[in-house]
Design brief:
With 300 residues, the chain is an alpha/beta fold. The chain has eleven helices and twelve strands. The chain folds into three domains: 86 residues, Orthogonal Bundle (Arc Repressor Mutant, subunit A), CATH 1.10.10.10; 100 residues, Periplasmic binding protein-like II (D-Maltodextrin-Binding Protein, domain 2, 3-Layer(aba) Sandwich); 104 residues, D-Maltodextrin-Binding Protein, domain 2 (3-Layer(aba) Sandwich). Strands 3, 4, 5, 6, 7, 8, 9, 10, 11 and 12 form a ten-stranded mixed sheet that branches. It has a two-stranded antiparallel sheet with strand order 1-2. Strand 1 and strand 2 form a beta hairpin. Helix 1 packs across helix 4.
């Protein structure tokens, strides 16, 4: 006798000993169900059912006892199965990353994090900063890497830890007239002399760039805004324009040897924070420490 036999036995009783109805609910043939039910009696040479004209009509006293025990066994089996499945399932940590360029820049960190934490199932959620902040508060994600300028105030329930400092820099073709071996910075006035293309207002960097120029009483002369950093690079490549993107993007730009990047004067820093909702702190504590250890190792 096994669990399947007990399941069939209990199902037959629940369906008023109707073999046809029971077989349909169990998705087995009537002959197969009849053989299994009959085998319960022949295996132990006992009578579990009272029959009339070869049809089962009710349980014998022993059959009633077996039925009660079978119900308990099936309940324990279900409880045990659920418990084992819960233990075997990997805990899911959802990590939010804003914009494709930042996701790529952080890819090495995420890969190392996954390798160090095989017990976790990692889900990456890519959205803009505003949506990621909402998802943190609603606990739809556990951790987010968010751009955090000085004037940015996160929701009061969000805790933030400095992760690393990026910088918005100016990209140009190597043969651009502003490029030279000794030059490391470019002024905002010089940038305004050229055709400029930047990411659109779906990105926090867009407002940061405009505010940066405004702080110097300048208005950037933007020729193009787009949501694709790849298109910005192509535009610079074909038209000799300038663009502004994070310095961390440079290693992943296709054919990046054709481009150079330099800091603005004054520079525009792009601090990246590891953020989490404080009510969720216990769940993500070990994951947070692991991520901080990785970035500390990479920056030392």
């Amino acid at each position: 006798m096994n669990i399947t036999h007990l399941e069939y036995y209990v199902a037959l009783v629940a369906n008023d000993f109707n073999i046809t109805k029971t077989s349909q609910k169990l998705y087995v043939s009537q002959p197969a169900l009849s053989r299994i039910i009959n085998s319960l009696e022949t295996l132990y040479d006992v009578e579990l059912f009272i029959r009339h004209n070869r049809r089962i009509i009710k349980l014998t006293p022993l059959g009633e006892e077996v039925y009660e025990i079978a119900l308990k066994i099936l309940k324990y089996d279900s409880t045990l199965t659920k418990r084992l499945e819960k233990v075997s399932q990997k805990e899911v940590i959802k990590i939010g990353i804003p914009a494709s360029f930042l996701a790529t820049a952080l890819s090495s960190v995420i890969v190392k994090f996954i390798a160090r934490n095989p017990q976790l199932q990692i889900a990456i959620v890519e959205e803009n900063v505003t949506i990621l902040e909402e998802k943190l508060v609603n606990q739809q994600i556990d951790i987010a890497f968010l751009i955090s300028p000085k004037e940015k105030n996160f929701h009061q329930g969000i805790e933030s830890l400095p992760f690393y400092d990026d910088e918005i820099v100016v990209y140009m073709k190597k043969d651009h007239r502003f490029n030279s071996r000794t030059r490391t910075q470019i002024s905002l006035e010089e940038i305004n002399m050229e055709r400029l293309c930047i990411l659109d207002n779906k990105f926090l960097m867009n407002s940061q760039i405009y505010k940066h120029f405004s702080s110097e009483n300048l208005t950037p002369k933007v020729a193009l805004e787009t949501s694709s950093w790849e298109f910005l690079i192509d535009y610079c490549n074909h038209f000799g324009a300038l663009t502004m993107l994070p310095a961390s993007l440079y290693p992943i730009i296709p054919d990046n040897e054709q481009f150079v990047h330099m800091s603005m004067n004054p520079p525009l820093k792009l601090p990246i924070c590891l953020c989490y909702y404080k009510d969720n702190a216990t769940k993500i504590d070990s994951a947070k420490k692991s991520l901080l250890d990785i970035i500390q190792f990479e920056t030392t």
